[in-house]
Amino acid sequence: MSDTVKKFLYLNRKAPYGTIYAWEALEVVLIGAAFDQEVSVMFVDDGVYQLTKGQDTKGIGMKNFSPTYRTLGDYEVRHIYVDRASLEARGLSADDLIEVAFEDMETEEEIDNIVEVIDSAQVSELMNASDVIFSF
Amino acid sequence: MSILHTVNKSPFERDALESCLTFATEGAAVLLFEDGIYAALRGTRVESRVREAMGKVKLHVMGPDLRARGLGEDRLIEGIEVVDYSGFVDLATQHDKVQAWL
Amino acid sequence: MSDTIDVEGKQIPVDEEGYLSNLNDWVPAVAGVMAQQDNLELTDEHWDIINFLREYYEEYQIAPAVRVLTKAVGKKLGKEKGNSKYLYSLFPYGPAKQACRFAGLPKPTGCV
């Protein structure tokens, strides 16, 4: 494997539970953490629904995987971006979303919440700036 | 002949809801479930379309699907009725047929 | 293939790699039986890790990959335990893989 660190961007555009995309994307992010790249995860369109607080799947008999997003910081995901326009089109705001903490074990730098709501122009910029985009 | 229409796709991703609301006639019922429940929430891009349809058809939403997605009943458009799985069965039996918008 | 292990006279189903088929079947004796099969005697130090994994799963709904486990153990149980040498000395078949199995969790995501 090459020593160059690449910028990986995981782009999530699907709602959870109705289809398998959201869970599969999350698994790929967790597995991909082993590759030591610079990883960002982005939520656009219905993907923003993956991060809503208070999910309780007992009634539909499916595994609730929303707590797993909170480990993304442990898996060295440094940035989680949410498209503001997608949130607004769905009547949601940053307050409706879970928080994900990050701690750099070497520098002991701690960040309480790496979930960041950004404008569409920034979404485009980040896409342009990444080396690889994985789309779900 | 009254029909129960069901929609299980997100209104932001597919036009299943739009087609359903276009073709459903006076007195029909619509049940939103799975990813279809997002149409039942206030403050969304499709809220006015849903409110307009409520003059013609009765809307229902699946409670367990709302809770799974972390969305409380306090976020629903007023007048949409929450049902559970047995309520789904009741709706199906109360109507002559079920039309699923997949 | 469906296999079972005998735990206190009860047959508990496991998958082809020896992980519990059903999370809810776990009782502490499961870890003891699995350890015996691996010729390992469980000490308090093993239990610290097994209990830690169960708590981690309860909170995050996944079994952590080995490097995440190492990091998290260091944070929770002290730096001297948060290294793979220590964890491998306890669980020679791999801290994440073997300890997760003892803890009744699925195989960690990212392990092959």
Describe the protein.
The complex is a heterotrimer of chains A (136), B (102) and C (112). Chain A is 21% helix and 23% strand. Chain A has 136 residues and is of the alpha/beta class. Chain A has one domain (7-135): 3-Layer(aba) Sandwich (Hypothetical Protein Ychn, Chain: A). The mean pLDDT of chain A is 93. In chain B, β2, α2 (47-53) and β3 (58-62) form a beta-alpha-beta unit. Chain B has one domain (3-101): Hypothetical Protein Ychn, Chain: A (3-Layer(aba) Sandwich), CATH 3.40.1260.10. The longest helix of chain B has 10 residues, at 85-94. Chain B is globular. By secondary structure, chain B is α/β, with parallel strands linked by helices. The two termini of chain B are 21 Å apart. Chain C folds into two domains: 3-37, Dissimilatory Siroheme-sulfite Reductase, Chain: A, domain 1; 44-102, Orthogonal Bundle (Arc Repressor Mutant, subunit A), CATH 1.10.10.370. Helix content of chain C is 48%, strand content 9%. Chain C starts with a strand and ends in a 10-residue tail after the last helix.
**Which term fits the overall shape of chain C?**
globular
> What fraction of residues of chain C sit in β-strands?
5-15%
How much is the radius of gyration of chain A in Å?
Answer: 15 Å
Total E-strand runs of chain A: 7
- Distance between the amino and carboxyl termini of chain A: 25 Å
Widest sheet: strand ordering of chain C: 1-2
Number of domains of chain A: 1
Major beta-sheet overview of chain A: 5 strands, parallel
Q: Please give the CATH architecture of the largest domain in chain C.
A: Orthogonal Bundle
Structural class of chain C: mainly alpha
Radius of gyration of chain C: 13 Å
The largest β sheet of chain C comes out as: 2 strands, antiparallel
Q: What's the count of strands of chain C?
A: 2
